[in-house]
Amino acid sequence: MKNFFESVFSVTPSIALAFAEKWIDLFKSTAILRPDVPPALVNTALALSVLLSVVFVLIGKSWGSAQKLRVSKNLLVVLGVLAGVCYGSRLFLSWPRTREVQSIVTSMWDLCAWVFVVVAIMAVTFAAMYAVSKKQDSAKNA
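User: That's the sequence. What structure does it adopt?
Assistant: Structure tokens below.
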């Protein structure tokens, strides 16, 4: 069971793909993302989050649990800011706007929304890595 999380993600990226895909499906039904999102944008976010998950799991293998916790907390703060921007964009576009303003805000909303999704997946990944390393640390000390 030693380094189980890191080993599984490093050997089997398809598990990271399924993990990221489920989170993206979850966020697609919220007010954070636009309902009419192009499939290319979804696939790009999926590919980016899987790639980053695998890379960060490999890089973060040697990190201590305190550093993993710090990264998780920082990602959660970024997540909150991005969620606020996305929801604010949705509220802003609820009232009639000119086409130019709509295109600018929609582009910003899409960018923030998909960065939000990728950061959410990274935050969950680091939180899981922290939980596994904390459990391993407590097993070593026992």
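The CA atoms of residues 21 and 46 lie 6 Å apart.
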